[in-house]
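writing this on my phone so excuse typos. first protein, seq and then structure
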Amino acid sequence: MAALDFSRPATRAFLFCLGLVFAQSSASPAIAKEYLLTAAKPDRLFMMDMSARKIVREYKIPGPMVAPMTFLPAPDGKTVYVVTNYEKSITGIDMESGEEVFRADMAPEFDIRSKNFGLEISPDGKELYSYDVLARLHPDRYEVLEPRISVFATDGGLNAKATRTFAAPRRIHLLMMSTDGKSLYALGKDFYTFNPVTGELLNTYPFLNWTRPNMSPPDLLNFWPLWDQTMIFRSLYTVARTNLPPTDPNAFALGILSLDLKNGEMGVEELKIPPEVLFTVVTSPNLRDAFAVFTNLVKIDLESGEAVKTVELDHSYYIAQISGDGNEVYLGGTMCDIPIYAADTLEKVDQIELTGCPDMGGSPLKIIHRD
């Protein structure tokens, strides 16, 4: 092969163009693809390509006595942490190999029973936060112990131990962390803010303990971490107007509790729609719309507080999730089907059935992005 003559203009031009090609290829990272995750009893975790409308991976969750409920993907989408063993253990599954790479038992002491009722991961993926409810087992009774938040290093391996613990109020059912990792929020009777390093309780936002004239304490039920696409947590609540008789159609109101995990802004807003049982609400990436679900799927205009459209569902669903472009709404959390609805019209466009029709049983729907 003849040597290149670097003195020739044509050769220099060729090399310049070749350099541009390599520079562009090295500067353009692979585009991360969006996947939907869910878990189902007794021991399955599913990863779905929603654009292709199919399940692409199915994982067996390690035992014993799995019964998955809560799970949480790492920020890089490479590992998923599942609360298992009837809320007494956390297992970490490598999404590429399917192997267990992390395991923590909530109470290794033989006379202590501890169950997880809230799970969160730090933005850098290095720490897991677990809300633990504990009891000491005596031959003739249970001794109720103080609840705590346990912190685990995600590189703790298959016999991970808490690196630190700190006290937490009772009746917590959801943990969430600010995007800068400086605040750990806990939703329970009230909304609490902790320093995730020291465990110091920084702030309490009254919720069940709020005092509003002519208003009852609100009622709220939420176990599902649904803020993937916007980093804005929203939860529905109901409240009674105590200055009106219960027979008055205006005596009860439906509202939304919200927390922006980017800046810590928190608030409540009453909706202008008749109260009905709705389990979860998810915010659209356009930040104008929200979608709530139970026996109906309801599209809510967040600016006006009014229902834009409502459609009746084939059966009840606990979870609503939304695509990154905001064009589709996914439903799940019950039975074994995940219907797909167009966000603009609420028309049902497709459906994915889980292999073998296992019961999701309250499991969340989570979004991950992988190359």
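second protein below, same order as before
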Amino acid sequence: MRRIFLTLAVLPIVLLTFGCGAAAPQEFTYEIVHTYPHDPTAFTEGLEYREGFLYESTGMNGQSSLRKVKLETGEVVQRFDLMPDYFGEGMTVIGDKILQLTYQTHLGFIYNRKDFQLEKTFTYTGEGWGLTSDSKQIYMSDGTSEVRIWDRQTLAEKMRITVHDGDNQISNVNELELVEGELYANIWRTERLARISPTDGRVLGWIDLFGILPDRPPQADVLNGIAYDAVEKRLFVTGKYWPKLFEIKVVPKQR
């Protein structure tokens, strides 16, 4: 997502009727388990964890890249820089491939995971924001309240879900991560993660991450970047131009 600040009047939250019978989303907060270094020049757009390494997509024209990062040190051990015309966005690892979105150029890239060689491109309508996947399908956000669901093999769009909390449609759905059968999402310009049902878009819970980066340096931008270690059950979060990446434990918020 780009670093442009708009008035709230330009980015309304639209009210829709989704049914008032559903239970209110549960509220959560966090405990920091471990703090790791993170490249403060990385405008983080996409983040995933695979087999001991973070895979990261960064944005901004002239700064966009795909990276393989050593978790413990923040060292970038592999990198592919995009042409200046492209603003890197969300990414996901699928087997031996990596898919990466771009912001407004309607073009995605498919890389060989081993050597980061660009193998092919694909197209889509609208803006590219977040991307994640499971064993059957791919989930893509476009900055609205909708999440597109693609076929994992063909990249054909199968359906869309609308992210909503009760009657409120939630706009600005950004970086995505699948965590134990739920979609976790950054909501742009907020300090909260939404826990979303991938079948109908209901917000199942909110994770309040307020204050996770105290003494924020001047260049640090918004919270963005979620990665999950499915083997060790570890959850990681960071932000754009953040000097730190956090492993957190999600805990219920005390009333």
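The first strand starts at residue 26 and ends at 37. thats all i got for now
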